[in-house]
Each structure stands twice: as C-alpha cells, then as structure tokens.
Amino acid sequence: MRNRLLFAIPLTVILAALSLLHAYWALGGRWGTAYTVPTISGRRSFDQSPLATWLVSGLLGLAVIIVIGESGWIAPGPLAALFQIGAWGLGLVFLLRAVGNLRTFGFFKVVKGTPFADWDTWFYSPLCLLIAVLVVGLAWLPRAR
Predict the structure, then answer these.
(1) CA–CA gap between residue 11 and residue 90 (Å, rounded)
(2) N or C: which terminal CB in the chain sees fewer CB atoms within 10 Å?
(3) 142: DSSP letter
C-alpha cells in the first residue's frame, strides 16, 4: 500500500489542481489562458467553449476518482477491475497527449516558436508524460490483499 501512495499522492494533487484550473477557466477566469491553445500564424487554432472546458474539468475530476480507487484509498469492491482498466486508460490518454498530434502539440510537433509551443515543450508535454508514468506505475503495482 505504501508504494502505491508514492504514485497516488502526486497524481491526485496534479489532477485535482488541473481540474480546478479548468473549472476556473470555465467560470471565466483569464489567468494563463494566453498559453493554453496552439497558434498557427498568430491565430488561435480553436476557441474552447465554457462547456468544453467544464467537460475537461469533469474528466480530470473523474481521473482523480480513478486514481483514488486504484490506489486503495477507498475500498473498490466490485469496481476494482473498472478502476484498474481506468488507470491503464488514463496512462494511455496522457501518453498520447505527450506524443501529440504531430503538428501543433506534443513532443513531436512541427509548429514551433509560439508561446504555446514553448510552454508545451517545456511544461505541458513533460507533465503529461509524468502523469502517464505515475498512472502506469500505480496500475502496475500489485494491490494489497
């Protein structure tokens, strides 16, 4: 159980903070939004709606629940397999985000030299890779009996 906490505690903190940050943005907060969307030729590639931002916030909240369930902080009961599948799925999603779409975000993007691209290279993609590694580590460890 103790080894699982080494993965679960930072994951819970990171995912909960990201969920709260997205809720802040969905409520109209502006802090940090200048660097959150890829730009091409000086134009934002898309404008996210508050509803889409709430959806991301909710999915990050669900990720927190999956981590808590997989860590053993709550008794998963008959949902143990669901938490484990969810953890492997989270690892895959965050790994794919770190790799990116090969154009505007991720480690292998070709659009460079923009504020978003710089933040993505040095913060967003490494953070997604860290989350993926932590989630896979949590899912890989045997559950205490």
Answers:
(1) 11
(2) C
(3) P
